[in-house]
Every structure is written in C-alpha cells, then in structure tokens.
Write a structure and sequence with these properties.
The chain has helices at 114-118, 126-134, 153-162, 190-205, 218-235, 242-255, 299-315, 320-323, 388-403, 406-410; strands spanning 3-7, 17-23, 30-31, 36-41, 46-50, 55-60, 67-69, 73-78, 208-216, 262-264, 267-269, 276-278, 280-282, 285-287, 290-291, 328-332, 351-355, 359-365, 368-382. The chain is of the alpha+beta class. It folds into 3 domains: 3-78, OB fold (Dihydrolipoamide Acetyltransferase, E2P); 114-170, Dihydrolipoamide Transferase (Irregular); 191-410, Chloramphenicol acetyltransferase-like domain (Chloramphenicol Acetyltransferase, 2-Layer Sandwich), CATH 3.30.559.10. It is globular. The termini are far apart.
Length: 412
C-alpha cells in the first residue's frame, strides 16, 4: 500500500484558511490524477481541490463544514488500491414452467420515497439534495449547469419556478405527516459571511450616494441585431450588451477619472487603466471577477472574457487572481428582471454601475410620443471622493455613448 497525503493548497497570499464544502469523492471511490475530490470555500472564492495522484480515496480526515488552514491534511489516497466493487443485485428467480393451480396475487411494490428514487442519479451537494427531497422532485428531469452537469441550487429554483421539473409521489405514510420543519437553520458559508462583511463595511465607511439616469437602447439593440450573426461566426461568441456597456464605461472613466479612483489612507489613488469587475452568479453567491485592462479590450475580448468567467464561476474554478485588482464594477440586475436598484460599492473601489431590465416605455421625442426600449442606470459612488457633478457627468457620457454607439468606435 502506497499512501499519498492530500493537503489544502495555497490559494493566494491573503487567504489563510477555508471551509470544507462538498466531498465530491467518498471513501472507497477511485480517483484519477488531477480529479477534484472536495470543494473548499474561502472568503473570496470556492474552488475544487484535486488529487495529485491516481488511486483510491481511503480516508477523509475532515468533515463538510470544518474550517481548515492552508496546508492542512484533509485526506489520504492509496495509489496502489482498487475501488471497492459495489455488490451486484441478486438475480431474479426463474419462473416456474408449470403454472400453479391457484395464482397468488401479485405483490404490490412498496412505494419508494422521493429521496430514494432520485438521490443516486447524479452527485449533489447537501443543500441541493435537501431542496430536491423537500419538493419531491425527480433530479433527472432538471438540467444541471454545474461542473459535469451537476445540479446547483439555481438550477433547482429555476425548475421549481418554471414548473419544468417532474415531481415524484411521496410515500403514503408521509401524506399526513408534515413535509418538514417550519424553520431551518443553516450555517452561513465562508464566502457569504465575507460578502456580508464587505457590503456592511462599504455602507459604514463610504459616504455612499446613488444617482440615476435612463438610456434609450434602440441604437444598441439595432446594432446587435444587425451584426450578431457575423460577430458569432467570426469570434465564436454571442454579441451581448455587456461589451457595449464595458466600452462605454471605459470611455467615461477616462473623462471622469475620479470614478475610477480609490482612497488609501489620506491619499487618492488615480488609476490610469480600467480593471472592470463584472458581477456574475455562482452557486454560493454573487462573485465579481475582473476584466484586466478592459480599456484595451475589443468587443470580442470582452464577451469571451465574461463568458469564461461565467463558466469558471459555475464550475467553482475562479482563482484569487481572477477576483483581485478591480477599479470599477458593473452589475447587471436586469437579467433577473430588476427594474431599479441602488447597488453597493465593492471596496476599495469608489463606484459601481447598475444595469437594469430593458422595458418598452412611451417617450416624448420631437414633440411626439413614441415607444422606446429604455433602461434605468444607477451609479452608486463614494461622495468622499466623487462629487455629484462628476457622477452625473459620468452617467451622461455612458448614456451618450450607448445612444450613439459610433462614439465607441471614435473614442468620443
């Protein structure tokens, strides 16, 4: 027997510990070299820890939810072992050649609880499994968007809201019993706790204010409709709205540098580059990976970068480097249907732009009432650094660039 120790790897200079999430492999399971065996959550990212060797997982030294330090021993793999074989089902008895004189009544199969029917169809985290069981859902009927098709909480919620998931009949004995406790307490994940701390710190520290404007999305939508097929053919990615907004913000940041600045002690740090954070949804909460030097990116670079971050977020592959160095953030609540909101600054940044739902509204243009696709924009900013005039100027420049996308090409 040759034993290999599995330890928590280094995750960045500022990360000293993490919490064990879901064990992806159980004792007795075969593992391949570089195959993920456990999820670990830090205050910045959730990531998977791979096995450095092939073999069989023979020991888990920590439980889900435990806090462990970087370098801590968490599991052991036998590099010479073989996976324990699961016992095969006993063969059904052969049917009697001669029919009995009196046929016995066929046995009625015992109803299988919903949890038992679906629990082994695919790997699920404890939180997702509990949700599937509580709603008596057939997990196989829900499309998973996580790594290797695994279900996430977002997948299950979407299936519940749309009614697309098949339900399994609950056992008769449970029909009159309560479906679950009236209340449930679940320990906050390390990432969720950190998100809560940072957002509250931003409210307590910054003199936060939000200013609003609205933009007519007609020109952007027309440009997107005209060129989306050519764009997709050439670059292998869909042309979305985020590339227009990112480019417009980079132009506005260049004109109003205070919006791209930050406060460090008694100094103002002006950044001569735009590292734009793009808020994306991950299974454990909202994360903000950063497009580095976005001012130099083409539309295709921006769309490819955002799509890559979206995949990494769903698969738990975001790294510390992906999340650091942002100077400004764009948050798109419109994809969830938000019409208006006041986003919270992501420290140490001094401003964040909130995009919202595009909604057709009657607008007075040239003395006539016309229907236009409109979007509300919200800029939350730190009033200690950014004056109202600068905030309004920034929003107006973004609005002008989107309503006349030619400005994006002419750098105006």
């Amino acid at each position: 027997m040759a034993i290999e120790d599995i330890v928590i790897p280094q995750m960045g200079e500022s990360v000293a510990e993490g919490s064990i999430g879901t064990w992806l492999k159980q004792v007795g399971d075969a593992v391949a070299a570089d195959e993920p065996i456990v999820e670990v959550e830090t205050d910045k990212v959730a990531m998977e820890v791979p096995s450095p060797v092939a073999g069989v997982l023979i020991e888990q030294l920590v439980a889900e939810g435990d806090t462990v330090e970087i370098g801590a021993l968490i599991a052991r793999v036998d590099t010479e072992g073989a996976a324990a074989a699961k016992p095969a089902a006993a063969p059904a008895p052969a049917a009697e050649k001669a029919a009995p004189t009196a046929a016995a009544p066929a046995a009625t199969p015992t109803p299988t609880p919903a949890a038992e029917q679906s629990k082994d169809l695919m790997p699920m985290s404890p939180a997702v499994r509990r949700m599937v069981e509580d709603y008596h859902l057939d997990a196989a009927s829900i499309k998973g968007t996580g790594k290797d098709g695994r279900l996430t909480k977002a997948d299950v919620l979407k299936a519940i809201e749309s009614g697309s998931a098949r339900t399994l009949s609950a056992p008769a004995s449970a029909a009159a019993a309560p479906t679950g406790p009236r209340e449930e307490r679940i320990k906050m994940t390390r990432m969720r706790k950190r998100i809560a701390e940072r957002l509250k710190d931003a409210q307590n520290t910054a003199a936060m204010l939000t200013t609003y404007n609205e933009v007519d999305m007609t020109a952007v939508m027309e440009a997107r409709a005209k060129y989306k097929d050519m764009f997709a053919t050439k670059h292998g990615i869909k042309l979305g709205f985020m590339s227009f907004f990112t480019k417009a913000c980079c132009l506005a940041l260049k004109e109003v540098p205070a919006v791209n600045a930050s406060i460090e002690g008694d100094e103002i740090v002006y950044h001569n580059y735009a590292n734009v954070g793009v808020a994306v949804s991950a299974p454990n909460g909202l994360v903000v990976p950063v497009l580095k030097d976005a001012q130099d990116m083409s539309f295709a670079d921006t769309e490819l970068g955002i799509a890559n971050y979206g995949r990494k977020a769903r698969d738990g592959k975001l790294t510390i480097d992906d999340m650091q160095g942002g100077t400004f953030t764009i948050s798109n609540g419109g994809i969830f249907g938000s019409l208006m909101s006041s986003p919270i600054i992501n420290p140490p940044q001094s401003a964040i732009l909130g995009m919202h739902k595009i909604q057709e509204r009657p607008m007075a243009i040239g003395g006539n009432v016309v229907i236009r696709p409109m979007m509300y924009l919200a800029l939350s900013y730190d009033h200690r650094l950014i004056d109202g005039r600068e905030a309004v100027t920034f929003l107006v420049r973004v609005k002008e660039a989107l309503e006349d996308p030619t400005r994006l090409l002419l750098d105006m």
